[in-house]
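Example record for the data management plan.
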Amino acid sequence: MTQIVFKTNKGDITIKVDHENAPIGAENFVHYAMEGFYNGTIFHRIIPNFMVQGGGMLPGMEEKSAGQSIENEADNGLKNVRGSLSYARTQDPHSATTQFFMNLVDNQSLDHTAKNEYSWGYAVFGKITDGIEVLDEMAKVKTTSSLGHQDVPVDDIIIKDTIVTEDD
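Corresponding structural encoding:
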């Protein structure tokens, strides 16, 4: 299983991606992590008692260019529980690219229930194995509106470095 450590200015978060249950999402996330895509990006949306989102914005809310969208694997049996990572997307269920969110609580309403536009769900592809307290600290920061985006941290929370390792 692949392990990814995000070194942020709030502390380190260690993630294990689930290649077995979410092969498309795991491969996509690892690809971007290995390329260093997430370095310098911010956690740009934080909603207490819900989730922390990142993976696509630079400081100043500048959107970082992403590649092709991936197939939504929300029907893989993995659930949006506290500490899980899922892909952020638009209304189109198959529009995820680089942006992800980390669940602060169990978010059953985000789980797959049917293969239609309204019930497809958000694909879980990994989980936090260390650093959940960093996520909890992020949830306490002051947020504002910025450039048409809501729930943006007043002070940037930046992914300074990404470390990818494989364990047997």
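Summary line stored alongside the record: Helices lie at 23-35, 132-138.
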